[in-house]
Design goal:
single chain; 255 residues; alpha/beta; Rossmann fold; OB fold (Dihydrolipoamide Acetyltransferase, E2P); 5-stranded antiparallel beta sheet; 27% helix; 31% strand
């Protein structure tokens, strides 16, 4: 039986990224590239006049705005995969993406053969099931300073541990990628753990009256949990293990 081939287009205001995507799609047995556009408006006009099964689009277009807003006007049968050089777009645009029919998801740039495989698998799944439930974004919103001025999105996998402290009164967040402390205000420790568990099940461990640790980013050292990778000034970072959990901690961390 002959393999079905579906027409697709790519959209990116960066001409070099557009060229790379075109080269990657030459290796697809599922898709036939029928258009490449640097303006999202031109791409939308094209899919309204031509049969197109898939659009792979950047998210941010300096002269047009965010693709989330414009693609609400696209044909409802069009499947859409987003790519972006900004990882936090998955978090900030999650609600907007869910409002657009047949969004396959988002992946960071650059487009690679492995990512093309994900697009192909997701496209087939969407065809068979009539839709895909997007995974919750694995990003965590916090502040870079104590004054609530500089905001930052961090990857959940970058978190080492989180503690509640009084100065400032906030959750203090310690990361693998930087020695600086980040902050989460107006959120209780248990609420924070429940949120993290909802988006990254099984990754974090809640330690009552102590804090939250990423099980993959800590190890046991005597009576304390310490960073598994001592890369920065978190060299002195440690969390006391409650006596009641001392014997159970190796199994809890490994689990």
């Amino acid at each position: 039986m002959k393999q079905a081939v579906y027409p697709c287009i790519i959209v990116d205001d960066d001409s070099s990224a557009l060229h790379l995507m075109a080269e990657i799609f030459k290796g697809s047995r599922l898709f036939r590239l029928v258009g490449a556009f640097e303006r999202l408006g031109d791409a939308i006009d094209f899919v309204r006049k031509n049969k197109v099964a898939l659009m792979v689009a950047d998210i941010e277009f300096p002269e047009e705005g965010l693709a989330y807003d414009l693609l609400r006007k696209a044909p409802k049968e069009l499947r859409i995969a987003f790519v972006s050089g900004h990882g936090n777009r998955m978090f900030s645009g999650y609600a907007a993406m869910r409002e657009i029919p047949h969004v396959l998801g988002m992946h960071p740039k650059p487009l690679t053969p492995e990512m093309l495989g994900w697009i192909e698998d997701s496209f087939v799944q969407d065809l068979e099931l009539g839709g895909i439930v997007l995974p919750e974004p694995a990003w965590f919103f916090c502040y870079e300073d104590k004054e609530h001025t500089r905001q930052r999105m961090v990857s959940c996998t970058d978190i080492i541990m989180i503690e509640m402290k009084r100065t400032p009164r906030a959750l203090h967040i310690y990361l693998n990628s930087t020695p600086r402390v980040h902050y989460k205000f107006s959120l209780a420790l248990k609420e924070c753990f429940e949120y993290l568990e909802s988006i990254k099940p099984g990754v974090f461990l809640f330690i009552p009256r102590r804090g939250i640790v990423n099980k993959k980013n800590v190890r046991i050292e005597g009576d304390y949990l310490v960073p598994a990778q001592k890369r920065y000034s978190n060299l002195k970072l440690k969390m006391k293990i409650p006596f009641i959990l001392m014997d159970k901690m190796p199994a809890l961390i490994q689990g």
